[in-house]
Amino acid sequence: MKKLTIPEMHRLTPEAFHEAEKVPLIVVLDNVRSQHNVGAVFRTADAFRLQDVYLCGICCCPPNAEIHKTALGAENTVEWQYFKDTMDAVNALHEAGFTVYAVEQAHGSITLEEAKEKIRNNRSKTAVILGHEVFGVQQEVVDASDGCIEIPQYGTKHSLNVSVTAGIVIYELFNALVTRP
């Protein structure tokens, strides 16, 4: 088996990416402090052609060399907005008709699999909020969300890295929102 070359992968140019239809999924980063995590989210958002990334609070914004190290230019293709307060982002999403989920371990949370099924059935515009690496999603943001999604875990640790969580959630929700031939 021979690895594909970049031309054989038929990737979009940045110009074609900007013109392409986007998946109605927005990722909100609530006070994510690591610039590498922010960059990784941009790169994953590009891979699945997401609509937007919202950076809130202490999140660093492009242009930034540390973000670029992991985003590899995706910070220039994926649309993004900055909100000083995450609640402003949540309110804007609700006003725009998005269903907003915090990715958090909470009383009454649903599993990622359950969330996929709800989203697949409703085909609604969806936003997911990922929180600070230590403190998670702020409680007031959890309270303002339409629900919480939890990734079941079976080991000794109680959480995953933000960029790993983003990759899992984005991939699964992409599959719920997009019908492929």
Q: Give the number of helices.
A: 8
* Helical amount: 40-55%
Helix-strand category: alpha/beta
Spell the H/E element sequence.
Answer: HHEHEHEHEEHEHEH
Largest sheet: 7 strands, parallel
Ordered list of secondary-structure elements with their pairings:
Blueprint: H1 6-9, H2 14-19, E1 23-30, H3 35-47, E2 50-56, H4 65-71, E3 80-83, H5 86-95, E4 99-103, E5 110-111, H6 112-122, E6 126-131, H7 139-144, E7 147-150, H8 162-177
Parallel strand pairs: 1-2, 1-6, 2-3, 4-6, 4-7, 5-7
Helix pairs in contact: 3-4, 3-8, 6-8
What does this structure look like?
The chain has 181 residues and is α/β, with parallel strands linked by helices. Helices cover 40% and strands 20% of the residues. It contains eight helices and seven strands, in the order ααβαβαβαββαβαβα. The protein has a seven-stranded parallel β-sheet with strand order 3-2-1-6-4-7-5, with helices on both faces. Helix 3 links the parallel strand 1 (23-30) and strand 2 (50-56). Helix 3 (35-47) packs parallel to helix 4 (65-71) and helix 3 (35-47) runs parallel beside helix 8. The longest helix is centred in the last third of the chain and has 16 residues, at 162-177. The two termini are 25 Å apart. The model has no long low-confidence stretch (mean pLDDT 96).
Top keywords for this entry?
single chain; 181 residues; 7 strands
Quick rundown:
The chain is an alpha/beta fold.
